[in-house]
Amino acid sequence: MADASFIHEIVKPTDPLSVWLYLHNERNVIFVAPHWHQGIEISYTVFGSIDDFVINQKHFTTSGGRVLVINSQELHSVYARRNDKSEALSIIFPYAFVNRLCPQIENQVININDTDTFNSIEKEAYIKLQTSLFEMYLVMKSDDKYKNLKLEASSIKVLQLLIQYFAKSKNEYNRKDGTKEFVVNRIQMITKFVHENYYKRISLDEIASEVNISKVYLTKFFKKYMNLTVGQYITNVRVQKAYYDLIGKAGNLTQIASKNGFSTTRAMNKAFIGIYGKNAFTIYKENNN
């Protein structure tokens, strides 16, 4: 998980495809703490909804058919209360793959999340995009012997639609978005430190020193741009990491709590209730029967 400047999530393609694909159909609450990656990500809500999808501080609630794009290095997080009919498709195009096919992407971003601004051509292209994504969903659910060929072809079609109809210059996008580069960079530095050290005791002084700002400024800055405190963010990251350990049977409750920076299992249980509505012990039991 290393980059020249920041720690971020490294995304590997789904073998043997050129892209990373995942169909979300979990029945529990889904929580993904704020993070970023180099690749370009698409979230397509097939059925059901996503309660709160945050991209660069903007909040989106989705329903069936909604497409969201997370551009390279954009901070994003997800919270969704799943039901039996909820399904969503995620696709991540590795940045090097996109750049090789479309070098102009270095100076562009995909601007598709605000559907109210679409012109007639973009509206038509959006329908084609939804159709292609739904076809990918059907192929993923099938046992078609040509499944990988179809998914590879469809993913290229999706990328072509995105860049041909929705790519805008970075300068134009940044003027409308209003997020300053130094803000994004500083947030990435803070989240990098947390993701590197979540399993240890972390102080505000340590984080402030890492990003060369005062503790007071760190507290105000993070709250302003992330809409949560640094302490809440640290807890959220620990909860997400611990959740995957729980369902992956990576030890008992005491071991998982200690591994992920919680002082006690009681502290871990309390944090889980705040996000998942049930404690870690309950989730552990549900996935270890």
UniProtKB/TrEMBL annotation:
Keywords: DNA-binding, Transcription, Transcription regulation. The keyword Magnesium does not apply. Pfam families: AraC_binding, HTH_18. The keyword Plastid does not apply. Residues 188-286 form the HTH araC/xylS-type domain. GO terms for molecular function: DNA-binding transcription factor activity; sequence-specific DNA binding. This is Transcription regulator. It comes from Liquorilactobacillus hordei DSM 19519.
